[in-house]
From TrEMBL:
BP GO terms, sorted: L-proline biosynthetic process
Similarity annotation: Belongs to the pyrroline-5-carboxylate reductase family.
Name of protein: Pyrroline-5-carboxylate reductase catalytic N-terminal domain-containing protein
Pfam family, one: F420_oxidored
Annotated GO MF terms: pyrroline-5-carboxylate reductase activity
Domain Pyrroline-5-carboxylate reductase catalytic N-terminal per the UniProt entry, residue ranges: 94-178
Domain of life: Eukaryota
Length: 364
């Protein structure tokens, strides 16, 4: 509570909107009544950007933690602990293909809340010279899409839908099957993406916006990075958020399941057994620890398997099929209160850890 109070005060102190009480100087004053009916689109656009950046940051954090956990999971005396931030032996390498507005926002959020080392982030853009700020921080910016997808573990595709066909033709023959393609672009179906990129290792959030909520309040004046300091707002972006009654934008809750199976695919690439993979998921996605063990857990049976196969790896899962079909995991995430609450808590914790470091100088 003290942390949130200090952050709220800090945000209020930084509010410098000189037009706040001067109605004639505000953007809306020059609009016709018909044009004002479209103002909700501005809030919706901002909300989508916040959702995309928050979900991308959480996804990167869980994958990064799994890579850091790899060696500990092989230890028979392994203890569930999350103090792993100094272990950089196997870093998660992130690529952003196309660094327009969305790509830049994701990059800044990953460096801030995802605590990503700039040396672990690469950006391929037609105008790398425009990314001077990111380059000064140590981010490698260039224009070589093939190099990007072949040298990173996760690629965020930030190009326009009209450009994606050409980019896909350029990279698909050299795209490693282990590379996770995260495509936040709205307007191209998942099946079409699978055909274009010739891979099933694709994550694509699905958003929609209830018409009855279009005039719900949403503060679009704050930048995306600062928006993610607010717990109530971040929790709205969680794929399995409990309260959806006033959402300006909604996300398909299947995204949580896709994150889970994408994480398993990375576990397979790290040669983790099924049992080790489940332990990694419980720790990274649900925040389990020795002090706070989960009451309900994922089991091999939830993946359609039987006990006794713990010492072999999972197969690689088709993320497109996962998105489009129901499974035991779908049922488990929708019915297990313990798992849902643990997921939501861990989701916010990704952002809370950064805020705690900023305010108090140490991790939670």
């Amino acid at each position: 509570m003290a942390l949130m109070t200090r952050l709220q005060k800090s945000s209020e102190d930084n509010a410098n909107d000189i037009t706040k009480n001067l109605l004639t100087l505000q953007f809306e004053s020059a609009l016709t009544e018909e044009e004002k009916e479209l103002l909700h689109l501005r809030a919706r656009s901002h909300a989508i950007a916040v959702y995309q950046c928050a979900q991308a940051t959480y996804f990167v954090e869980i994958l990064k933690e799994i890579r850091q956990l790899k060696n500990q999971l092989k230890n028979p005396n392994f203890k569930r602990t999350r103090i792993l931030q100094d272990d950089k032996k196997d870093p998660l390498l992130i690529g952003i293909l196309g660094c327009g507005r969305l790509g830049s926002q994701i990059a800044h959020c990953l460096l801030t809340y995802g605590k990503l080392n700039p040396s672990e982030l690469q950006i391929s853009t037609r105008r790398p010279e425009t990314q001077e700020y990111l380059q000064q921080r140590g981010v490698d910016c260039y224009y070589d899409n093939v190099r990007l997808v072949s040298s990173t573990h996760v690629v965020f595709v930030g190009v326009l839908p009209s450009q994606l066909t050409g980019v896909a033709d350029e990279i698909k023959d050299l795209l490693p099957s282990s590379t996770i393609m995260y495509v936040p672009t709205i307007g191209i179906s998942l099946r079409r993406l699978r055909q274009m990129l010739d891979t099933t290792n694709i994550v694509q959030p699905e958003y929609w916006w209830p018409d009855e909520n279009r005039h719900k309040p949403w503060n679009h004046s704050v930048n995306v990075n600062m928006a993610l300091e607010k717990k109530d707002l971040v929790e709205k972006t969680c794929p399995i958020c409990d309260d959806i009654s006033d959402q300006v934008v909604m996300v398909n809750p299947k995204l949580a399941e896709v994150f889970l199976f994408a994480a398993i695919n990375m576990c397979v690439d790290l040669n983790l057994t099924r049992q080790e993979s489940l332990r990694a998921l419980h720790l990274s996605m649900f925040g389990e620890s020795d002090r706070q063990p989960l009451k309900d857990k994922l089991t091999l049976a939830d993946f359609g398997g039987q006990d006794g196969g713990e010492e072999v790896c999972f197969p690689h899962f088709d993320l497109v099929q996962v998105t489009e079909s129901e499974s035991y995991i779908t049922q488990k995430l929708s019915t297990s209160t313990d798992l849902r609450q643990a997921f939501i808590k861990r989701y916010w914790q990704v952002f809370e850890e950064y805020l705690h470091i900023r305010i108090y100088g140490n991790i939670i």
